[in-house]
Amino acid sequence: MAKSKSLGPDTMGTRFYKWLDERLALSTMAGFLSKKTVPQHKHSHWYYWGGITLTFLIVQFITGILLLIYYKPGPDAFESVRFITYELEFGWFIRGLHHWSANLMLLALFIHMFSVFFMRAYRRPREFGWWTGVLLLLITLGFAFSGYLLPFDELSYFATKIGLDVAESLPLIGPALAAIARGGTDVTYLTIQRFFTLHIIVLPLIILGILTIHLVLILKHGNASPPSEEAKPKNKRKEIKFFWDFFVKDITMWLLALNFLILVTILFPPQLGSPADPLAPAPEGIHPEWYFMSQYQFLKIFGNILPGAIGEFISIGLMACALLLWAIVPLIDNTGKAGKRAKAATYIGLLSIVILVVLTAWAYLAI
């Protein structure tokens, strides 16, 4: 009887690995990743939020694909969501995972963004990492807005209608943008089809491209340490290997995030309101989701001070300027040292948090 070959350099598995390595440079990537390290300090726990955000994004893609099997954009949109929620076996669970992972992804993204900001991880040479991160935030908000209409119940219809009315108030391009988004003069089934295309094709393609660039930049430049750590001598700084020391901790946080998502979905399953009725008046107390509440309140404040289109125009212009200021922070705090510019950046970050929290709380109290 012939003896079986022992594993060695000439085994089929080894030859297959060599074949892949020659074409994909696996050994080069493995060598790079084996040398990658992560700073270890008292603020290291903030590094996990990027991975948690990515985890919820993956859940979004998986559950979104599952929902596509039964969702029908157009006149049957509401009925298809009603079927998924109340009749399809475990449909409520899949829809709940999709709904809550979207909310938790945005929350994790905000935490990640501010932790990156206060660690000064936007400084040279990480400026493009910051700019791609800002773009990812805007695209994620676009996901949230476009997906909100798809159930086409009463709440989603009027919230989308108000949002597009605000966009229409922009001078020059506003009416054209709103008309393109609606597919006409009002929110109809054609609007659902346009938002559906944006939600499942256009935005996913854009976010995958920018996310790839973002991750490559993180791999290239590594995790930034806060200024307090950067000030220490190199022999005083601690690091751990990404594989497998940090990666195991990262996976643990992903699993905890997934468990929390499942718990929230079970405790607070998604519901569906009444079908959208364009002829009915908007229900009292209608408001956007929490991640748009600060902007909503800001528009209300200026609407009371300066009623009409001029108030909307000024408020939108101020929000655009604030976003631009947030994006160009790497150009403001570009010395890499403590000083007036670093203090100015800190004030910008603290003021941004205060404004977001105060306006959001104010908006909910005013309902």
Topology:
Blueprint: H1 12-24, H2 26-35, E1 37-40, H3 48-68, H4 77-86, H5 91-118, H6 127-148, H7 154-168, H8 174-182, H9 189-221, H10 227-230, E2 238-241, H11 242-267, H12 293-305, H13 309-327, H14 329-332, H15 340-365
Antiparallel strand pairs: 1-2
Tell me briefly what this model is:
The chain is an all-alpha fold and 367 residues long.
CATH superfamily annotation of the largest domain: Cytochrome Bc1 Complex, Chain C
Instruction: Specify the CATH class of the largest domain.
Output: Mainly Alpha
Percent helix, as a range, is 55-70%
What is the CATH architecture term of the largest domain? Up-down Bundle
Order of helices and strands: HHEHHHHHHHHEHHHHH
What does this protein look like?
The protein has two domains: 241 residues, Cytochrome Bc1 Complex, Chain C, CATH 1.20.810.10; 81 residues, Helix Hairpins. It starts with 11 loop residues before the first helix and ends with a helix. With 367 residues, the protein is an all-alpha fold. Helix 4 packs across helix 5 and helix 5 runs antiparallel to helix 6. It is 69% helix and 2% strand. The longest helix has 33 residues. It is built from 15 helices and two strands. It has a two-stranded antiparallel sheet with strand order 1-2. The protein is globular.
